[in-house]
Write a structure and sequence with these properties.
The complex is a heterodimer of chains A (114) and B (115).
Chain A (H helix, E strand, L loop, with lengths): L8 E5 L4 E6 L7 E8 L6 E6 L2 E4 L4 E4 L5 E6 L8 E9 L15 E6 L1
Parallel strand pairs in A: 1-9
Antiparallel strand pairs in A: 2-7, 3-4, 3-8, 5-6, 6-7, 8-9
Chain B lengths: L4 E3 L2 E4 L5 E6 L6 E8 L3 E9 L2 E5 L6 E5 L5 E5 L8 E8 L10 E2 L3 E5 L1
Chain lengths: 114, 115
């Protein structure tokens, strides 16, 4: 499984757009990129998953350049409740499960201020 | 649709004891994975079960074991507890079918404290 590198922490303010970038230089052809969000003492929650270009859902967008060696999670107009740890994961969607032997990195601790 | 249910939520055990944690996956999900989360090591994969069979295993000692029942419910057992086993134990469920939507849903975890 490809290793990922993310910033350890980020700070932003309510109403701002936050972009968290993840590096995955050794991503394989079959690998998808998945982001999870985790609040203290809770399990991670799926945010978004993509393979290439751009994916958007109701909570976030995921931008993946053509070489797929990095990806950027974009959170529009963040609020205090977006304060959490965000994990970028890379794995084979053709595999059994995105929870199958996932390697979680250290994640990015995002702090949102009023 | 009920989410992933883990019981108990909190547990305090003494060194040397053993403990069993339970996970009920989302209805229809056949894959259950277990993770240990500690401040120092982060989230670490323990093992995954699918159709009552262990399909993947992380790098943990044999004191950590698990099983899955025919209704997909899973239990993990830790024997001869050590202080370092204090952690949040998380269970994740997914459909488990190759190529299907592979989103994993996590439970709220069991906070185990070993004293």
């Amino acid at each position: 499984l490809a290793k990922t590198t993310q910033p350890i922490s980020m700070d932003s303010y309510e109403g701002q757009e936050v972009n968290i970038t993840c590096s995955h230089n050794n991503i394989a052809t079959n690998d998808y990129i998945t982001w999870y969000q985790q609040f203290p003492s809770q399990g991670p929650r799926f945010i978004i998953q993509g393979y290439k270009t751009k994916v958007t859902n109701e909570v976030a967008s995921l931008f993946i350049p053509a070489d797929r060696k990095s990806s950027t999670l974009s959170l529009p107009r963040v609020s205090l409740s977006d304060t959490a740890v965000y994990y970028c994961l890379v794995g084979d969607k053709g595999g059994y499960s995105s929870a199958s032997k996932i390697i979680f990195g250290s994640g990015t601790r995002l702090s949102i201020r009023p | 649709k009920a989410g992933v249910t883990q019981t108990p939520r909190y547990l305090i055990k003494t060194r040397g004891q053993q403990v069993t944690l339970s996970c009920s996956p989302i209805s229809g999900h056949r894959s259950v994975s277990w993770y240990q989360q500690t401040p120092g090591q982060g989230l670490q994969f323990l093992f995954e079960y699918f159709s009552e069979t262990q399909r993947n295993k992380g790098n943990f000692p044999g004191r950590f074991s698990g099983r899955q029942f025919s209704n997909s419910r899973s239990e993990m057992n830790v024997s001869t507890l050590e202080l370092g086993d204090s952690a949040l134990y998380l269970c994740a469920s997914s459909l488990g079918r190759r190529g299907a939507n592979t989103e994993a849903f996590f439970g709220q975890g069991t906070r185990l404290t070993v004293v």
